[in-house]
Structures are given as structure tokens and as C-alpha cells.
Amino acid sequence: MRPHRVLRLLGLLLRPFAGILLLPAGIDMLYGATYAAAGFAAAAGVAFLLGTLLRRFSGEIEDVGRVEALAVVSAAWMVAAVLGGVPYLLQGFGPIDSLFEAMSGFTTTGSTIFSTADFDRISRGLMFWRALTQWLGGLGIIVLFVAVLPALAVAGRQMFFAEAPGPEEEALTPRIRHTAVALWKLYIVLTLAEVALLRAFGGMDYFGAVCHAFTTLAAGGFSPHPLSLQGHTAAAQWIVIPFMFLAGASFTLQYRSLRRPSLLFRDTEFRVYACVTILAGLLMALLLAGTPGHGFGESLRHGLFQASSILTTTGYASEDFNQWQPAPLMVLCALMFLGGCAGSAGGGPKVIRLIILGKILARELVTSLHPRVVRMVRLGGRPIPPETLRQIVGFLVAYFTVFGVVTILAGILENDFKVGITGAIATLGNIGPGLGRLGPMETFGTLGPVTKLLFTLAMWIGRLEVMTVFILFQPGALRILLASPRPRR
User: Could you say which DSSP state residue 379 is in?
Assistant: First the structure.
């Protein structure tokens, strides 16, 4: 049975995941929080035992197909959230809240059930774990394990592309493991650079600098401070802005541009992404200027900060934008429906898909006037294959269908239109904060349990780029997963 192959691959992933859980346990031991450390050790033990049991399933992993790879990736993110929620559970949070917070971490959403009091009562290890889950999820759990587990072989290649966010993501090298290692090297270097700058010029201690670097480069937004970046200096906010921008840009493109910087400006998606970030930031700065507490410097800083934060789906707040006037809030809401670049840590529909959608609409306008005209959709001078166009349109239809369903259900459950709309896009787009009761200084903890589960599911679907979940529940995909393997000759 093919499920055995999927379970065996999950077992391969879970054992190193158990080792990761021991890192925050060590921090709690360092600070004398023995009980909290024991909670992480218990979660690590469960993950290791479960991984060992699953590895005993028979099934070859050398010829894993795309459907099986999608099943492994989908299950891995859910299992990671369940096991990652155990430390929260052992520190007094309810089961649903623990799952919500862990899922928000691994999917780099940044929505939180924490209240201000929770930031003071949890252990240092759990605070570090919140940041670490986002850092791992930013580049991708599977990408990490592909880099460190040679045993994944061909299965690793299939899972790498199954997890890659956005269309047309390609390998840097012929060997996919080398690609994963290269991306993680770049990711680590950028993280260390931000730690050094926040420590030297941002007024943060090492713990705060590490946690903020982890959650910035992951486009996650979990801050160890209850007021997010509002609780830190203006210098710290200026330092974070360019790193949020890099988190929302393709890491593959950044790696290639180390040798050829001109590649950045030749890339259509990057140019559009950079222009939208700058123009949206300047527009919000203009709209904020003259309002109470916003001089020229403050308006420019908050405008650029929040444009970068929301567009890249990081979700940090330099101040409580819930208190802004409607005009700049409308700009923020528009950015929530864009997202970062393909191959970045950012969530959302991705800039490249919206560019191509615009080109499809332009073609349809021309062909509606001139039916005999044959016009290819091109990007960067290259024609886009029809199957890619179909995939993009299909994704966008599925994405906004899920958004509409989650909006309606959450709005009904909470009897709050603003919670429905902004909560749906904040979780499905992996953005973090919304507006109203879900603003940057508010908490998702006040929501009902069913709404929390709905938003947890939306975070998972959004991180898997929607279509993955739809594909797995197709009858054809289920038949493939449940089919008996062909005998070897």
C-alpha cells in the first residue's frame, strides 16, 4: 500500500525534528526553568518515538511520485504543528490555542492567541520556540530536511518542489540537496547579519535580536515583545525594514544575484515587487503626515515599515495601525491581497501570479476586439506555457474561493464582519494581524474555539498554496495514494 511509503517518509522527517525540540529545552535549562525544559524533552521524545515507529513501515522511497510528495508535505506541516503545540499545552494553554499558536509559527503567519500577560509568564525557551518555529517554516521544513538528510534522495526532490511557494520555482544546481544547502546558507548569513545590526545599533539584547532576526527573515512576525516593534527603538525599526524586504524576495534570485547583481533588476517580479513596496510606503507616509504624532520622519518610517511588513506578510507593527485613519488602512488592506515573491518566505497569492493575471486580462481585451489575433502571454520576453497559465488561474480561483468561504463562516461565528474579512486574509495569506478585534495589539485568543480551528485550517491551507489540499482530496489522487505498489522486475 502506498500509504506505507508516505508514513515511512514522515518517520524520516520526525526523528531530526525531535532533535530541534531539544534546543529550547536547553535554553530553559540554562535559565533554570526545569519544568518547561521537561515539556520540550517530552515533546522531543514523542516525536522521536513516532518517527522510529513510522520508519518501520515498508515501502521504497526512491520512486516517490508527485501525489505522494504532496501528501508527505501536507502531513509534515500538520504533524509539526501538533507536536510543536505540546510545549504550549504544558505551559497552561488549551489544546486549541496550542495548535493555533504552533500552526501560526510553522506557517509563518504570526497571528497569536497570546495576551500581554502571557508574554510575561511563559518561559524563555517557549519564547525562543515561537521564533524558531517561524525561522524553520520560513524557508521550509522540507527544504531543511532535504539539506541534512541524504537518504531522502529522489523523494527529497519531489518534496522540495511540492513545498516551493509560487510558480516556476527552479533548482540552483542539478542536485536538489545542493540547492537546499545553498539556500540555507544564504538564509543563515542574512539572519546573522540582522542579529549583529540589531544588537549593535537597535538597542536589543542578544535574545531579542535573535528572536527578531528569526521572525523577520521568515516573514513571520512573532515578536518577543507584546507591542511588537513598537516596543523598540526607531533605529531597530529602520534595521528591520530592509530585512523584511529581502524576506519577501525570492531567495533563489538573491543567491544568483550574489555573482550577477544585474539579475535583480532584470527580473520582472522583483521590479514590480520593489516598486509596489516603495510606492505604497510613500503613499501611506503622505496620508499619515500631519495626523497627530506623525511628523515627516515618523510618517516615512511607519509608512515604509508597514508597507514592507504587510506586503511581505511579516506582520510586524511599528505602531498600532488599528488607530490610523481609513485612507492609509485602505492601502494596507490592498497589500494584504498581494503577498511576496515566488520562492520567498512571504505568503499570499504572490506578485508573479498577479502580474501574469494582468497579462492574461490584457490579452483577453485585445482578443475580444480582434478575435483573429493570436497573442502569447510573455514574461521577461519568454512565452508562458498554456499549462502554467491554467495553473495560475486555477490557483487564484481556489485561493479566493477559500477566502470567501472562511470570511463568511468566521463572520457568522463571531458576528463581526471585520473579523471575518481581515481574519480570513490574515490567516489564509499568512499575514498575522488584521483589523478591529484582530489588530496588531490585539489577540486571536478572544475568538471562539470553532473560529480558531477554522483559522488554523486556513493557515495550513495558505502555507500549502491551497491547490495542494484540493489535489489531495480529488478521487484520482486518493486512488493513487491507496493503490498497491507495482512489483519490481
Answer: E
Q: Is 53 left (phi over 0), alpha (psi -120 to 50) or beta?
A: alpha
Question: How many degrees, rounded to 5, is the angle at CA 422 between CA 416 and CA 423?
Answer: 80
Query: Within 10 A of 95 (CB to CB), how many other CB atoms are there?
Result: 13
Do 108 and 427 contact (CB within 8 A), yes or no?
A: no
Chain-centre distance for alpha carbon 486: 37
User: Where is 383: in which H helix or E strand?
Assistant: strand 382-383
Q: Is 278 exposed, middle or buried (0-12, 13-18, 19+ CB in 10 A)?
A: middle
Res 105 pLDDT > 70: yes
Distance separating alpha carbons of residues 197 and 462, to the nearest angstrom: 32
Q: What is residue 378's DSSP assignment?
A: E
Structural element, H or E, at residue 7: helix 2-30
> Could you give the CA distance from residue 469 to residue 107 in angstroms, rounded to a whole number?
15
Amino acid occupying residue 169? E
Q: What would you measure as the largest C-alpha separation in the chain, in angstroms?
A: 76
3-state DSSP helix/strand/coil % of the chain, to nearest 5? 70, 0, 30
Query: CB neighbours of 351 closer than 8 A, spacing ≥ 6?
Result: 269, 272, 273, 276, 338, 339, 340, 341, 342
Q: What is the DSSP letter of 225?
A: S
Task: Please return the burial class of 169, using the count of CB atoms within 10 Å of its CB with bins 0-12, 13-18 and 19+.
Answer: middle
d(CA 231, CA 84): 27
Q: How far apart are CA 17 and CA 9, in angstroms?
A: 13
What mean pLDDT, rounded, does the chain reach?
Answer: 87
pLDDT in tens, 419-448: 999 999 999 999 999 999 999 999 999 999
